[in-house]
Amino acid sequence: QTMGDLFINFQTDECVAENYTRELDLERGVVTVGFTSNGLNYTRRYFSSAADQVMVIHITADRPGAVSFTANLRRSRYLDAVKASTGNTITMFACCGAEKGIRFCTMVRAIYEGGTVSTIGENLVVEGANVVTLLLSASTSFYNDDYHGKSIEYLNKAEVKGYNALLADHVADYSRFFSRVSLKICNGIGKNELAGLDTEQRLERLRNGKEDTGLVSLYFQYGRYLLISCSRPGTLPANLQGIWNRDMLPPWDSKYTININTEMNYWPAESCNLSECHEPLFDHIERMRSPGRKTAQIMYGCRGFVAHHNTDIWADTAPQDIYIPATYWP
Predict the structure, then answer these.
(1) Distance of CA 51 to CAs 7, 47, 165, 175, Å?
(2) Taking a C-beta distance cutoff of 8 angstroms, is the pair 144, 105 a contact?
(3) Per-residue confidence band for 189, with pLDDT thresholds at 50, 70 and 90
């Protein structure tokens, strides 16, 4: 399951939003959104920092006191969570009565300049600020017994560091992987022909039979960006839907389908100079060794190791799924 959704409701008039842009900077791992509303220019910057274990949302406008919004955390109709708020922080965590499965905590804190920040019920309320930085932390019982305390620790350290240092450390951490490989495929097309075209327009050109080998280079680097952003040493490997999966009931449960899909996720690891990103997969295979020996003995009366077409974060090696041909696929 996804941890949940962070909803941010801004006091801007969507009907008069103009000059909207949204971009992903692959070289820095930063998303930027910009638009104009009622004569004001708004900019929002997003990044998820492996260095500091927080997601950062930086919100600015070109006039003082123009940033106002409410924010809250949701888990759709899945009510296995309780919420709390205090000062400039809202929290969502697993119910105390939940004894099985993974317990979790996620927190959002507003760091602001000018204006006011308060909490009303489960809502974080920002009014008339100049600049706001939202820090989102998360932790689960899979890694930490005190997952609530760990989430607070991440937030406190990030708040002390401040936005500029968080951004600089994120870019430095991400770039040490991304900058190892460059790929340029010359396509003989004049720069003016592609200048100003967004990705959707360039894809449409391809569909219409026009050439754009530069988009191939971009797609190659996008694949590297995805692996860098979801498979770091000390974490779980890249799963079927990815750690940014949005669904509470994702297809195939966001497991590891090891008859091909897991392998496909990691095809770029070595050839694209991301060996460290391969490590979570090797660690997971190591976790599977003991269960795999039991499965071989109990199911087949054999020595050695066996796994079937699926595994999960618990390193399960027994047959899974209700689709019989896949279930007994060793």
Answers:
(1) 25, 11, 11, 12
(2) no
(3) low
For 28-87, give the DSSP string: TTEEEEEEEETTEEEEEEEEEETTTTEEEEEEEESSTT-EEEEEEEE-TT---EEEEEET
DSSP structure string for 246-259: --SS-GGGG-EETT
Encoded amino acid at 213, one letter: T
For residue 238, what are the contacts with CB-CB under 8 A and spacing of at least 6?
226, 227, 230, 231, 262, 265, 266, 280, 281
End-to-end Cα, the chain, rounded Å? 26
Q: Which whole number is the average pLDDT over 204-215? A: 91
Length of the chain: 330
pLDDT in tens, 76-108: 776 667 788 888 999 998 765 556 778 899 999
Is residue 209 very low, low, confident or very high in pLDDT (cuts 50, 70, 90)?
Answer: very high
* pTM (whole model) above 0.90: yes
DSSP letter string, 100-167: SS--EEEEEEEEEESSEEEEETTEEEEEEESEEEEEEEEEETTT-TTHHHHHHHHHHHHHHH-HHHHH
**Who contacts 101 (Cβ-Cβ below 8 Å, separation ≥6)?**
none
Closest CA to 101 of 312, 256, 247: 312
Q: How far apart are CA 17 and CA 66, in angstroms?
A: 15
